[in-house]
Amino acid sequence: MEEYRPVIKGVTDTLTKLYLIVISNTFKLALSRVMMSFRTIFATLLAVLLSAPSAIAQVPANIAVVDVLEGWRDADGRHYAALSIRLAPGWKTYWRTPGDAGIPPVFDWAASENVTDVTVAFPVPRIFEINGLTSIGYEDQVVFPLAVRPTDGGEDISLRGQLLIGVCEEICVPMEIDLAATLSTGSSRHASTVARAMRDRPMTAGEAGVRNVGCEIVPISDGMRITARVGLPQLGRSEFAIVELADRSIWISESLVRRDGNTLVAEADMVPPNAQPFLLSRNDVRITIFGGGRAVDIQGCS
């Protein structure tokens, strides 16, 4: 069955899946190998929704309310703020790797002034199982901490940009939201909320007591297979692992997870667009392990 393996992941295949879900929840998802742009797929999804009055009737007026929380300026000039998304009851949005059915958020800060870079942190998400599909994300509210590095730390920051997210309940709605805020040098508004969001993060390997992380990486017919062995006490009754690479064009399967005593074993297949084995540095492998409402973020393996 390997010839049917999808060769792209990330935005393209998750949105293709969502397109099929909108049409009928009874369909088994079959991904095409056709690359579509992010905005084109958003437009396609929106067109499907707009053509279905019964679906539109289910969408609440304030499906997602987005606010920039101003935060504070640190002594080194870096500004700590946050992006709050409050969702209508029963609706969800997604983590950076959304799983089988979801749309990862995309942040575009290109229109900002006095900004060198913006780092977005992702709070610990939840794992959802819906109609046989696994998704990873948030419900009710999520607050994404932002670390903004200004060009001039002594001046105000004009934070301008766009946020692309998917918000789902029984149907999925793509949203494109314009963001605008001034982050002033003397700001302290919403500081406690921003600080609390910064604490709601996955543990590092050191904090979680990870002893060692080993990876066996072998070629398969259309890519590579990774088997990671992580020395980590069990996080909860049910554990879930996500393997990521910086190159989002590489499709990565859902990990098969098992326990060997105090060692968690996670196996996943990785398939690039050309469906061929490829060179992979172990330092580029990122593994996140979930369980018991906690998560551990591990960068690299040996």
Give descriptors for this structure.
mainly beta; Immunoglobulin-like; 5 helices; globular; 5-stranded antiparallel beta sheet; 302 residues; 4-stranded antiparallel beta sheet
Structure in words:
This protein has 5 helices and 19 strands. It is globular, with a radius of gyration of 20 Å. A hairpin with a 2-residue loop joins strand 18 (286-291) and strand 19. It folds into 2 domains: 60-199, Sandwich (Immunoglobulin-like), CATH 2.60.40; 203-299, Immunoglobulin-like (Sandwich). Helix content is 14%, strand content 44%. It has helices at 11-23, 38-50, 53-56, 191-199, 205-208; strands at residues 64-73, 79-87, 92-99, 106-108, 117-120, 126-130, 133-139, 141-149, 157-168, 172-183, 203-204, 213-220, 223-231, 239-244, 251-252, 256-260, 263-271, 286-291, 294-299. The protein is mainly beta and 302 residues long.
What's this, in brief?
This protein is mostly beta strands.
Radius of gyration: 20 Å
Please identify the structural class as seen in this structure. Answer: mainly beta
Taking all residues together, what is the mean pLDDT? 85
Share of helical residues: 10-25%
